[in-house]
Design a protein that fits this description.
Chains A, B: It comes from Desulfopila aestuarii DSM 18488. 2 copies of one chain form a homodimer. Helix content of chain A is 39%, strand content 20%. By secondary structure, chain A is of the alpha/beta class. The first copy, chain A, has 3 domains: 72 residues, Arc Repressor Mutant, subunit A, CATH 1.10.10.10; 131 residues, Nucleotidyltransferase, domain 5, CATH 3.30.420; 165 residues, Nucleotidyltransferase, domain 5, CATH 3.30.420.40. In chain A, α2 crosses α3. The two termini of chain A are 21 Å apart. Chain A binds a DNA duplex through α1 and α3.
Chain lengths: 403, 403
Amino acid sequence: MPMPVRDLMRAINRAKIIQIIRTAGLVSRVELAAESGLSKASVTGITAELIKEGLIIEKQSGEYEGGRRPKLLGLNPDGAYVVGVNLSIMEINVVIMNLEADIIANTSQPLENRHYSVDEITELMVTTVQTCMWEGNFARDRISGVGIGVPGPVYTNSGIIRFLPNYGWENVNLRDRIEARLGLPCFIDNSSNTLAAAERWFGEGKGIDNFLVVTLLNGVGLGIVINGHIYRGAEGIAGEFGHNIIIPDGPLCRCGKKGCVESFAGMISLIRDAKAAAAAGKWQPADIEAITFDSLVAELKSNNKIIIDIFNQAGTILGRGASHLVALFNPSRIIVTGTSVKAGRHLLEPFKAALANNTPEMCGSIDDLVFVKEWTDEQWARGAGSLALQELYKSPVSELTTD
Amino acid sequence: MPMPVRDLMRAINRAKIIQIIRTAGLVSRVELAAESGLSKASVTGITAELIKEGLIIEKQSGEYEGGRRPKLLGLNPDGAYVVGVNLSIMEINVVIMNLEADIIANTSQPLENRHYSVDEITELMVTTVQTCMWEGNFARDRISGVGIGVPGPVYTNSGIIRFLPNYGWENVNLRDRIEARLGLPCFIDNSSNTLAAAERWFGEGKGIDNFLVVTLLNGVGLGIVINGHIYRGAEGIAGEFGHNIIIPDGPLCRCGKKGCVESFAGMISLIRDAKAAAAAGKWQPADIEAITFDSLVAELKSNNKIIIDIFNQAGTILGRGASHLVALFNPSRIIVTGTSVKAGRHLLEPFKAALANNTPEMCGSIDDLVFVKEWTDEQWARGAGSLALQELYKSPVSELTTD
DNA sequence: CCAATTAATTCAATTATTGAATAAACCAGC
DNA sequence: GCTGGTTTATTCAATAATTGAATTAATTGG
C-alpha cells in the first residue's frame, strides 16, 4: 500500500508543519514558514487544511512586533483522542488521552498472579477499554486509534507478540484480536518502546532526535530513538538492553543466561534478592511472601542497609551497562524511567557513578542523564497511547527508502 | 543551506531511481516504474536526465517477453570517479575508483613510526593523491569528490577530527586543509564508518538496511547502518564498540580504561600481548621488537600455541561484546572486516562461539554473521572512496527532519 | 508481412509550490 | 480619531513536477 507519489509532497509538508507546531506549542504562520522552509503561501494553505480538519486551532494572538499581531497556532487538544492500553504483571491500565497528553479518563483492571490465556487477556482488555469509554462518556467514533503496550518483544508491523515471559505466550497476535473486537486501528509494541514514544511526544525527548530511554520495570528495557523515530531493528526486537551480560557468572535470568542487567536490576530480581536475603536471616520482613517492590522502597526509606546494598548493586550494574550504550549510540540524552525510579537515590546515584566510571572520556559527554522523577502507574498506559499518536501522525518520510 | 522545498520532489525521485539502479544492476524503465512507484512517464523523464548527465547508460537489451525488448539501464561506471584516502598507522593509501568500485589507480605512502604533525600529513596526503592522479592519468576535473578515512572519532559535519590517538591530535580540521589544497569536495570520517559505507555500497551490505560492521584494525571499531544510513550519534562519535568494557580489571587501554574490547582485540593489543609473552620467555621470536601483525599470523599458521591462545582470547572477548550488539541493535547482519580477519579461524571461531554462548535466545537469530574473507590494504582507501560516493549521491530525504 | 505484445515516449490535465501583490490588523503619535 | 508605518496573512498568476491515456517503437511468431 504505497502512497501515490503524487500526494507525497503534501503529506510530507503537512507532517512537517504538524511536527513544528507540536514541538513549538504556539507558533505563527510566519514562523512556521521560516522554520519549515516553505513559503508563506503554502503555510497558509496547509494550515487552513489542518484547521478545517480540526487538528490545529488558532489559539491566541501573539506579541506586538510593530504591525499586525500574529495569530498563534497550536494543536487542538480535542482534535483527536487515543486510547492507551498497557499490560503489566499487576494489571491492565487503560487511559483516554488527547493530543496534549492530558488524561481524560483512566481505568485499571487488576490481574491475578497466574497465567492468563490470550482469550482471557483479550476479553479483559476489551471490557476495560469499554468501561473507560463509559466512564469518560466517550463514543467509539471519537477515538482515532488504540496503542497497546506489552512486557515482551513484539513484531510491530505484523502485530505479533514474539514472546511474553509472564504468561509463556509465543507468537500471539494480540493486536488483531483487539482490533477485531474494538473496530479501531490498533498498534502494539513492547512497553519500553511505548514509554519512549511518550518521552518523544510529551516528555524529556521532545525536540530531541537521538536519545535512549532506559525502562526499569519488572524487566529492564531500552527504547531507542534515532532521527526522531523509534528504532526497532531488523526483526523488531532491538533494545534488549536488559539481557546484556555484565557478570558472566551472575544470577540466572529468565532469559536463560546468567548475569545480564535484568538479572540484577529488574524489579523481579530485586524482589528475589530481597527475599533471599530475608530467607538467609539478613533482615526480618513481616512476611517474606508479601514482599513487594513498594515494601522495598519503604525499607530504603527506613535505611535498611541490606536492601540498600541490593539497590546499590543494581544501580552499579545498570551504570556499567549504560556505559556501553553511551559508547555505542552517542545519544543526546539518556532518560531513565519506569517503576523502579521510585527507589530514588539508592538506585540512581550508583547508576550515575558507575556510568561515569566506566565511560572512556573519548566516548563523549554523559552529562545529559535525566531521571524521570515521578512515576505513576497510569504512565504506562499513557505511553501506549503515545504510540497510537505517533503511528497516526507519522510522516510519510519515514516510509521512504533512502540512501 | 536547506534545499528549496520546490525542488525536493525531483531530487527525491532522482535519488530513488539511482538507488534502485545501483542495487539492481540492470533494470528496465518499466521495472523502475514498478519498483519506485513512479509513473512510466516520470521514469522516462528522470532517466533521460540521468543519461544526459552521464550518470547512467543504456547497457543492453533485456530478454524477449512477448513484445518490444526492454533497454536495460545501469550505472555508467565512468559516470563519476572519486578518490579515497585512508590514514593508518602504517601508511597513507590512495585509490581512484569508479561507480562500480573498480580501482583505477592506487598509490600508497609508507609512514614512519613517529608522531606526524597535521601539516606533514596534509602535505603527504596531497602529494600522494597527486601521484595517484598522475599514475592513473587523471585530470582533476574528472574527480567528483574525495573521501578521507582516519583512525579516530570525527565530527563529520564540520570535518573536525575529535581525537587521533596515533599522533595525539585533538580537534583538527584535516578535511578543510585537504579541501583547500585539492579544490575538490572532501568528506572525512573514521575508518570504521568508511568501511561500513563500502559494505553498504559494494559489499555484503548491498540492499540491506540495518547492519553492523565490526572493524578489526589497530583498534576495534563499529560502523552502524540504520535505515540505509550510517548512524553517527549526537556528536558524530557513535560506534565506539572497541571501548565497551568487558573485563573491568583487564589490560589498560589507550582510552584510559581497563579491559575494554580493544584492549584485548585491537591489533596493537595483540602485538603487545605477543611481545609480553615473548619477553616472559613463553615463545622465542627471532626479534621481539620486529614482531608485526603479519608475523603473528605466520605464527598461527605454524601452530604456535601461545599465539593461538592470545587470538582465541581476543575472539572470545569480541564475541562477548558482539552479543551486546545483537541484543541492542537486532541487526539483519553483522559483517566483520579489517586487517585482523587475516588471522582466520583462530580469531573468528572463538568469536562465533562466544557470540552464540552469550546471546539469549529471545534476542533473535545471529545466523547472519559474515566474515570478509580477503583483506588487502587498498580496501581501506576503497572504503574512504565509498564515503565520497555516499555523500555525493545522498538522497535529500536523509536531510528531512521527520517524525 | 501482419498481428500480437511489451517497452518507451508524448501530451494534455492536474496539483502543489512559489514570489509578488494585496489585504488585514495593529500600535504610535500627532 | 485618524494617518502612517509595520508586520501578518491571503490571494493570484506563474512554474514545475507528476500522472493517465494515447501514441509510437520495437520485437517475434506464424
